[in-house]
Design goal:
The protein has six helices and no strands. It is an all-alpha fold.
Length: 111
């Protein structure tokens, strides 16, 4: 269940980010650095989600993760596309990225 939910709940397909940044006039290194930053922050996001999932109500934590993503997307829409804004977007969107450790138990506990 969590694998399917995690795949279907992706907000931004990571494979499209370098092409989007290239279309916006950014050099190729910006797209590759954003992907590297996403991969690095996914590790910390998973660890944070597992840690918080054992200490905070899972439905509230899941709501907070999705609220944080909404704020990150709103901020990225308001900022001009620069290397710095791309790095900020990757950091804000992907630090709390792993909802699977939180969503699977929350969904399993529902009758």
């Amino acid at each position: 269940m969590s694998v399917g939910c995690t795949r279907s709940c992706w907000i931004v397909d990571k494979r499209d980010i370098p092409a989007f940044l290239a279309d916006a006039g950014q050099p190729a290194w910006v797209g590759s650095t954003v992907l590297a930053l996403i991969g690095l922050l996914n590790i910390f996001g998973l660890l944070a989600a597992c840690y918080l999932g054992s200490r905070v109500s899972k439905p509230w934590l899941l709501g907070g993760i999705y609220l944080g993503r909404a704020v990150a997307i709103a901020i990225s829409v308001l900022l001009p596309i620069t290397p710095a804004s791309a790095f900020v977007f990757a950091a804000l969107l992907n630090l709390p990225v792993k909802e699977a450790p939180v969503a699977a138990p929350a969904l399993a506990s529902k009758p």
